[in-house]
Amino acid sequence: MKSNLAPLGPKADKDTVRRHNLSLVLRAVRDEGEAGEATRAGVAGRVGLTRAAVSSLVEQLIDSGFLTESGKTFSGQAGRPGTALKVARTGPAGLGVEINIDYVSVCVVDLAGTGRVRQTEHLDNRGAPPGEVLARAAGIAARTLESAAEQELRPVGAALALPGLVSGGSVRQAPNLGWNQVPAEELFAGALAGLRPGRSVLPVSSENEANLAALAELWFGGLDKARSFLYLTGEIGVGGALVLDGELLRGAHGFAGEIGHVVVDPAGPQCRCGSRGCLEQYAGQAALLRAAGIDEGATGPVAELERRARAGDARAVGAVAEAGRMLGRVLSGAVNLIDPEAVVLGGIYRGLMPWLAPPADEELTDRVVSGLWSAGSGRLRASSVAGDAARGAAALVMQDVLADPVAYAGRNEPEVAR
Amino acid sequence: MKSNLAPLGPKADKDTVRRHNLSLVLRAVRDEGEAGEATRAGVAGRVGLTRAAVSSLVEQLIDSGFLTESGKTFSGQAGRPGTALKVARTGPAGLGVEINIDYVSVCVVDLAGTGRVRQTEHLDNRGAPPGEVLARAAGIAARTLESAAEQELRPVGAALALPGLVSGGSVRQAPNLGWNQVPAEELFAGALAGLRPGRSVLPVSSENEANLAALAELWFGGLDKARSFLYLTGEIGVGGALVLDGELLRGAHGFAGEIGHVVVDPAGPQCRCGSRGCLEQYAGQAALLRAAGIDEGATGPVAELERRARAGDARAVGAVAEAGRMLGRVLSGAVNLIDPEAVVLGGIYRGLMPWLAPPADEELTDRVVSGLWSAGSGRLRASSVAGDAARGAAALVMQDVLADPVAYAGRNEPEVAR
Questions:
Q1: Same CATH fold assignment for domains A14-87 and A91-211+389-407
Q2: Is the C or the N end of chain B the one with fewer CB within 10 Å?
Q3: What's the CATH fold of domain B15-87?
Q4: pLDDT at B2
């Protein structure tokens, strides 16, 4: 049975408790700020500390540049007028870098999680040497960092979003990029440092891109409080991620969520992963375009697919519907296994929902054993605009800042070349 | 982002803290008792409380009948000789009742989780009125309770293990039993109360049987510390459960783990769940026996299947190998999605492992994308003998006792008819 042998009553020292409480207050202001306006009294009620304790913590957070106070005062429910608190729009920020098959997207978010700078370039990364792709991404990141500096934002770390199996800083396998055992963090950090001589070196982390898109959906997507969902993103590959009770399921080796390689037909087409008949071969971007008769090399092929489907082109509509059926079939197995609150479709699926969702929903209704799935119930839904991997990556960096602001307080001065 | 707004420093009152610490000490003695002998000093070290505090808690647990002290003394590593502590072999106990398609098994476990009384009857429950099946189960339970009373064990609650979708005390759907919307807890509790006039009424809970078998495996199975695993149990149906980081995944509606209804072939045979081509139609007991040419109505048909496979009967070996391939194919999808440490096969699969496991392992090796699955690596394993649903159900009842022994201290007198 579950053994939790820690006695009640933490033996934490005063400094640890204060750092923890600074984080609580900072997060409370951010969360309250989303709903309306945060005040010291409101935060005190929310976190369960005294008004006096919260005031002292707020002063420290203002002094360190994490919070700002608006001049505006207003009458609280009770007591004297309060001052509205906000998380700072300058200072610590996170840099997210999504490297996908046919584009690189870089994003900087602030303490509130708002995307402040975004730069996206469409590039064909397939078959290019990994070092070259990562150097290109570092170039885009360096330019994005300059724009961020102009807004007085200072990224404290970078996170890479990568379309493959990521662990220990490396890409173990990214079949659609043709990458195997690529030390992505090291290559990116080196390239970025080379482009910014004399500047402080950004710590770099990395994560699977579907995982980060799912986190962005969880954090910013307005999922009607769905805390457990399966996330699928249609790209060149089909990425997947599982969020259970508000936490990303990483799996025993960090490789959970690989729904793109669930078998649809064991005798089906060869997949780049080495297996046959994977979902990706039926519902990935290439399969979809091929079935619709659209050249993958054409300009904006997915927009063209959407255009044709909207115009009622039978071949396009049929291709998307068939992909939807295959998605639904695989999803029904996943739903039977996981029983999530919702299934969220992102990437190219977002724009294809009108033709993709009904057949997928129908398969789910037929095959989910609980009988709880009914077509049009809203359990199958499109991801929000907010759900993108670059923003999720940038927000992941900010998790560390929010968890222990004191650790980042000293780094708050304007950046200067040394 | 995850908001944990509870401040450090619990505001728990003294009574709450003491009850919590009594639970800590009781669980520590039980866990230490598994490894060797528990002493006050050892427990103090383990739970992080002072020796004096632990002594006082131990006295209360002895007085209430939860712990016993063996007369035997021995020299500790340091200090004066200690007395060995053990959890009591009498007193509070849990009653587990597994109602499956072709048998009912009832088990009583003590505080240590040891199965102390077991009664199993082979019955064909298919198509029988649910009330009748539950009344039969209550009869077996009543007889088991008499045997438990002779051992001075006093079950404080009963848990039902049921082969279907269970929530809110009812079976929503158990296709192989033919049950729909059956208020199982109520029917069982009523029948049991009727058989024990004047006795105290046992609180009854219920859970999916594969979930409970998986918990038994987690708690008693010696899984080499695997805390995340997918559990499959071959019965008339194919049940499944997911344990992630030592916790059962119940899902948004309590229906997670239904791997038996993952689609193998959308055009395959009709399944009792209403869908087609589910795993159960390829790897369930009926499908296996049919493919092996064994009459399902024969005596001990699964033992016969094992016997024939052991004797090298080509049809039997082929049937089991084909079921293994289908299992492996579905499992590969689940492993790609979840990335568990291990996959554990229970029920009829345990005895069929020599012929079932190699083809399943081969499919997994071919289809798990991380390349981390290799045949014979031990990630695919048979469940231990301990992994049965009735014991899991009984142990689930004991969780409440271990979590708050004080709540059960008053019920420790010998049971008398009133």
A1: no
A2: C
A3: Arc Repressor Mutant, subunit A (1.10.10)
A4: 34
Pairing of strands B238-244, B229-234: antiparallel
* Contact call for A338 and B337, based on CB within 8 A: yes
B249 vs A8, more confident? B249
Share of residues in chain A with pLDDT > 90 (%): 69
Tell me which residue in A165, A244, A337 faces B258 most closely, judged by beta carbons. A337
Which amino acid is residue B48, in one-letter code?
Answer: G
The pLDDT of residue A46 is above 90: no
Q: Do B47 and A5 touch (CB under 8 A)?
A: yes
pLDDT top residue among A72 and B137: B137
What residues of chain B lie within 8 A of the CB of A242, using their CB?
337-338
* Distances in whole angstroms, Cα of residue B114 to Cα of each of B19, B35, B157, B331: 24, 14, 16, 32
Supply the mean pLDDT for chain A: 88
Show me where the domains of chain A are located.
14-87, 91-211+389-407, 223-382
Distance CA A319, CA B271 (A): 29
Torsion over CA: A24, A30, A32, A34 (sign): negative
**Amino acid B200: pLDDT:** 85
* CATH T-level topology, domain B91-211+389-406: Nucleotidyltransferase; domain 5 (3.30.420)
Mean pLDDT of B221-239: 85
Q: Which residue of A has its CA nearest to B266?
A: A329
Q: Which CATH architecture has domain A14-87?
A: Orthogonal Bundle (1.10)
